[in-house]
Target: ATP-binding protein
Amino acid sequence: MSLRMRMLALIGLFLALLAVAGAAVMIANARDAVRAEMASALDLGIAVGRAEAGRRPSPDAVASLERLGLRHLRFIAGEAPPDSLGEGDAGHGVVPGWFAALVGVTPQAHALTGSDGRVLLTVVAEPQDEVAEVWEDMRDLALAMLVAGLLLLGAAWMAVGRALAPLARIEAAVRRLRQGVYEPGPRDGLAGGGVPELVRLGTGIAALAEEVAAAGRENRRLGQRLIEAQDRERRDIAREIHDELGAALFAIKVDAGRILRLSEEPKPEAFISERVEIAGRARAVLSMAADVHRLSRRILVRLRPALLDQLPLGEALSGLIDEWARREPEVRWSLDVAEDGTPDGIDGLDEVLRLTVFRLAQESLVNALRHARPTNVSVTVRRLPDRVEVLVTDDGPGFREGPGAAEQGGLGIAGMAERVRALGGTLRIGPDGGQGTRVAACLPCVPAGLEGVA
Model:
């Protein structure tokens, strides 16, 4: 059953209960009124009948009393048999038996006797005419209530239809959301007319659709930027392999070929000078091999920080700071790892969080040295029972604050922001007290979407 039909059924039930209650009250009042009327009529009939019965014989007295036309009264000469009490009812044929039974008032009779004790006249007060009047009043009132109820239901049908009209638009909008169409349709009009509750509901759904659409656009934009970042990373790695690793391997090939040719020459008189050249070539090969080894380690670290596989997170961060301290000795570096009431500390985090914390620190340090010339760089990692906080600050020229701050640092910061959002955390980048840059990230210890996983 639709909501409109349910509301109309409820209104109809209320009207029916109201009619039943009204009918019960009217029948109860009618019963008392008919009884009072019968008692009054019977008293009048007794007084008039006694006067007439004292002046003339019973048949003449009955004829005289019938000519008076007294309401609700019937006079019978002598003692009336019980079966004849309801014979004079004029309205009995128009009153349903069930209604007369509900009223429950029976004829009342009183016998007038003479001085010898013989019954001269019987006065009968009959309620049928009064019950018929009550029945006519109730019938007219029921017909009026029926017409008024039908008009009320018709008005309620139209009013409820107009009030619930936005539900069709809301249903269509929700269907569009389920189909993945987040932009409002031409007929949506969710913030249109209707009852205030539905207007607020429609406005909320419209706002939700706009937010989902904006989130979808943002996800597409970030996805495109991440793809670009991956392509850029691949190009950088390919360039390093081509420019540095390729050149180093070519140099190794040249030196190895020269060593081979020198070892194959038969003339021993120049052997000393050749030995010197062979030794120089061998040292060059060893140097190139060391360069290739360092280059391969640098590429592997960019692809996957091996420190996390070999060391706890705290020691991996310390190693990262030490490496930058060797590269930039003029910068003062500091690392603070705080563990508030957690038994395992930051080393007890799962793999995804450990990698994210390390990448946040790594990317923030790279950006601090790439985009500024700081003299102090500080890294703070704080493990709380329900979250991990990462804070990286420097005293460089600063960073413009605003909603688009995450895009200013290029693809690296955009990638960090996307990774943090994917874990249900927050990332804020802005000035540090008017000077320098402050990168603050808050990550839940249970990543978003994994709360119910045991």
